[in-house]
């Protein structure tokens, strides 16, 4: 019987800390503000936005919405981002992507000021994660949510073997870099990996971010293992499932995050944490 | 008896290709130019510079030296770099580091225009390697030299297990990212790795970049393995040695690079390749 690493517990502890910090910021005259930039009305974006706004309210972060038509030109969007960059009342920006087809994703995301890049989408944020430095931009929220769960539940990382399934810029690679920084020995697996089950079975920490139901079966697991299931998949009945066959894993492994109720729950709090950090940094730099 | 993966053979083939391409560039009116920026007269820098100038001459790249006093101010150096950025007669820049203590390394290296960053020192180049894209800056030359050797000797990478010893931004991490891009399954080991011998023994490709004589012994090796020894160490008698105990490895493994005569030999040719690419890109963009 594995310990279930619930996201809610991590979130509760994070939110308490954030609420305390936003109170302090407000007392000192700084209102921490997240700007949400959305083009059009995609249901996924709207759902995430509602969740973010609720979480923001809870921890004392103000949200400013910037909603534009889905057929907006790239130049107009770039101009709006430049305006937001100049606005020192906005500390962090969440830009919904994928962007509509008339817009060059790379040009737009790199227009954002790295110090406001709380979702880790700029090249500078990526270079920061890759270099293991903290002074440039922010890591992608989902990758950091994995690390926050490991930290909260005191899972040792130093000298441990970690296997990461997936090599995307949003989860696989950044979580690998962050595990490496904590002195884990990291193996990155992907669709071309041969005998993935053997490789993963040797891991003390297994991060599953393949995005396919049933990727991680019994053969991938061992009794000392901590499993972080990052994926959000939906089965034929529309039920939310991770990459891991939970019924197989739960009796075997040491500890595991559930889906739903695991990593996904923590991600929005990490976004808020980055906004609060950005507001604190902005306040510090004004004082200098 | 292992196949010895000699750097000279790789270099010869690279140089022939580069000489052909620089002839073509010159016929079309573009003289490919590498700018070398050096502060002071450190013996290491001077030795590397001599090697680079010789290699440049051989393949038809012109070198312009920018030599400044070691006590130059940061502002003065930044101004010189901005001048070089604006000079469209210079296609690539090699900046010797470490820089003197009065100069902030990060500020200076990121002042360089990414399209001239043939040594892969800017954050933008690093983000490019990390993202696996080729359109931004250049990867560090030593990391690419490892890949060039593997390519030249037709070592299969797809689905193979690669172990990298070392996690620096100059070799360990970039070579891991480049192996990943070639669809190898990559494990990154370092000083905190436990049972490194076991992990490495399972690898089909072993990249040793620890920087310590005798790191890789028999226990790390298997008969199907290709070993790339990146390190340049010197023993008590001043003799150049890699990380691998060559006498132990050579009877066991499938193939191995020697030290000296392996990776180090290829690095300068990679630098020239980047200059030629930068010159070709500059020519292409002028034509548009």
From TrEMBL, chains A, B:
<dbReference type="InterPro" id="IPR020631">
    <property type="entry name" value="THF_DH/CycHdrlase_NAD-bd_dom"/>
</dbReference>
<keyword id="KW-0378">Hydrolase</keyword>
<feature type="binding site">
    <location>
        <begin position="166"/>
        <end position="168"/>
    </location>
    <ligand>
        <name>NADP(+)</name>
    </ligand>
</feature>
<dbReference type="GO" id="GO:0004477">
    <property type="term" value="F:methenyltetrahydrofolate cyclohydrolase activity"/>
</dbReference>
<keyword id="KW-0486">Methionine biosynthesis</keyword>
<dbReference type="GO" id="GO:0005829">
    <property type="term" value="C:cytosol"/>
</dbReference>
<feature type="binding site">
    <location>
        <position position="232"/>
    </location>
    <ligand>
        <name>NADP(+)</name>
    </ligand>
</feature>
<comment type="similarity">
    <text>Belongs to the tetrahydrofolate dehydrogenase/cyclohydrolase family.</text>
</comment>
<dbReference type="GO" id="GO:0009086">
    <property type="term" value="P:methionine biosynthetic process"/>
</dbReference>
<keyword id="KW-0554">One-carbon metabolism</keyword>
<dbReference type="GO" id="GO:0004488">
    <property type="term" value="F:methylenetetrahydrofolate dehydrogenase (NADP+) activity"/>
</dbReference>
<protein>
    <recommendedName>
        <fullName>Bifunctional protein FolD</fullName>
        <ecNumber>1.5.1.5</ecNumber>
        <ecNumber>3.5.4.9</ecNumber>
    </recommendedName>
</protein>
<comment type="function">
    <text>Catalyzes the oxidation of 5,10-methylenetetrahydrofolate to 5,10-methenyltetrahydrofolate and then the hydrolysis of 5,10-methenyltetrahydrofolate to 10-formyltetrahydrofolate.</text>
</comment>
<feature type="domain" description="Tetrahydrofolate dehydrogenase/cyclohydrolase NAD(P)-binding">
    <location>
        <begin position="140"/>
        <end position="282"/>
    </location>
</feature>
<keyword id="KW-0658">Purine biosynthesis</keyword>
<dbReference type="InterPro" id="IPR036291">
    <property type="entry name" value="NAD(P)-bd_dom_sf"/>
</dbReference>
<keyword id="KW-0560">Oxidoreductase</keyword>
<dbReference type="Pfam" id="PF00763">
    <property type="entry name" value="THF_DHG_CYH"/>
</dbReference>
<dbReference type="InterPro" id="IPR046346">
    <property type="entry name" value="Aminoacid_DH-like_N_sf"/>
</dbReference>
<keyword id="KW-0368">Histidine biosynthesis</keyword>
<dbReference type="InterPro" id="IPR020630">
    <property type="entry name" value="THF_DH/CycHdrlase_cat_dom"/>
</dbReference>
<keyword id="KW-0521">NADP</keyword>
<feature type="domain" description="Tetrahydrofolate dehydrogenase/cyclohydrolase catalytic">
    <location>
        <begin position="5"/>
        <end position="119"/>
    </location>
</feature>
<dbReference type="Pfam" id="PF02882">
    <property type="entry name" value="THF_DHG_CYH_C"/>
</dbReference>
<keyword id="KW-0028">Amino-acid biosynthesis</keyword>
<dbReference type="InterPro" id="IPR000672">
    <property type="entry name" value="THF_DH/CycHdrlase"/>
</dbReference>
<dbReference type="GO" id="GO:0035999">
    <property type="term" value="P:tetrahydrofolate interconversion"/>
</dbReference>
<comment type="pathway">
    <text>One-carbon metabolism; tetrahydrofolate interconversion.</text>
</comment>
<keyword id="KW-0511">Multifunctional enzyme</keyword>
<comment type="subunit">
    <text>Homodimer.</text>
</comment>
<dbReference type="GO" id="GO:0006164">
    <property type="term" value="P:purine nucleotide biosynthetic process"/>
</dbReference>
<dbReference type="GO" id="GO:0000105">
    <property type="term" value="P:L-histidine biosynthetic process"/>
</dbReference>
């Amino acid at each position: 019987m594995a310990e279930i690493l619930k996201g809610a517990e991590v979130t509760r502890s994070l939110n308490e800390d954030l609420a305390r910090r936003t109170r302090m910021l407000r007392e000192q005259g700084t209102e921490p503000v997240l700007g949400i930039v959305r083009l059009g009305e995609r249901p996924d974006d709207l759902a995430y936005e509602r969740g973010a706004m609720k979480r923001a309210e809870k921890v004392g972060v103000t949200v400013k919405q910037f909603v534009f038509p889905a057929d907006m030109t790239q130049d107009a969007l770039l101009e709006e981002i430049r305006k937001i960059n100049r606005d020192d009342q906005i500390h962090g920006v969440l830009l919904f992507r994928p962007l509509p087809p008339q817009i060059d994703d790379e040009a737009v995301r790199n227009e954002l000021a790295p110090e406001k890049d709380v979702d880790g989408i700029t090249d500078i944020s990526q270079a920061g994660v890759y270099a293991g430095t903290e002074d440039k931009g922010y890591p992608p929220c989902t990758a950091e949510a994995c690390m926050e769960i490991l930290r909260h539940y005191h899972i040792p990382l130093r000298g441990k073997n970690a296997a990461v399934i997936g090599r995307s810029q949003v989860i696989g690679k950044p979580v690998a870099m962050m595990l490496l920084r904590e002195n884990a020995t990291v193996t990155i697996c992907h669709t071309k990996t041969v005998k993935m089950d053997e490789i993963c079975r040797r891991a003390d920490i297994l991060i599953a971010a393949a995005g396919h139901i049933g990727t991680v079966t019994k053969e991938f697991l061992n009794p000392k293992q901590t499993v972080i299931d990052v994926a959000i998949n939906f089965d034929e009945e529309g039920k939310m499932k991770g990459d891991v066959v939970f019924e197989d894993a739960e009796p075997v492994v040491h500890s595991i995050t559930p889906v739903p109720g695991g990593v996904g729950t923590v991600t929005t709090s990490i976004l808020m944490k980055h906004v609060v950090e950005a507001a604190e940094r902005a306040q510090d730099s004004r004082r200098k």
